[in-house]
Sequence to fold (271 residues):
Amino acid sequence: MPELPEVETIVRGLARAVVGQTIDAAEVRLARIAVAPPNLSFARAIAGERIVGVRRRGKYAILELGSGRSLVTSLRMTGRLVVADAGRPEWPATHVVLHLRDGGRLRFSDVRTFGRMRLVGAGEAWDRELGIEPLSSGFTPEAFIGMLSGRTTPVKALLLDQRRIAGIGNIYACEALWEARIRPSLPSGRLTKPAMLRLRRTIIDVLQRAIEMRGTSIDDYVDADGLQGGFQNSLSVYGRDGRPCVRCGTSRIVRTVLAARGTWWCRRCQR
Ligand SMILES: [Zn+2]
Fold:
């Protein structure tokens, strides 16, 4: 499931490939994927729009359009957003194809069909439920301490809550907690202040390193050119149950379930 580093990598690739391009036509093959404001046809509304910018918010990739509208894409479990020449083969389950004026195609594919491409109006506050960006200047030590203090929510569940911090998913929550030596089930408010500061630092570090390696390709994630990322070779705990911890070497990584999600951690390092 693409998280912040994967979506950031896709967005950077799209910025190179599609900014300045005009969308001549949109081909919608599965209607529920392409969502438009009431009384508008997605395909008709988007035809002729120019792409003036590309950005990321949380796990969403956003194409900013000349009219002031935005095309907000969520990839959810298995979505892919790839630019290619018209002649290149499509990924399986390609549901929306944007025809670009230079002959290129921006294709959205999604085997599980949970992803969406949503056309939102100018000024529409579609992201007001999303929390702070962990790589922004707003993610200060004070903000993070304030978020955790007094809460009984397990710290891992809090990291996954998009209304508090936007963009962290299961992979990077597990990795950051392991690096900070914090037990995933610990109630957030029970972390010491040094542990909170350490965790904030490791969240930033692990996200930045993953972006440098262009994301983690374990399941379906590919970048905007259809290429895999490289961070799956640098994971310390995620998906490594039964293998020795790479830090202490004496304990094996365990997988438990927390907030209905698989959680990988080291019983020795993360007490
Ligand atoms: Zn360990």
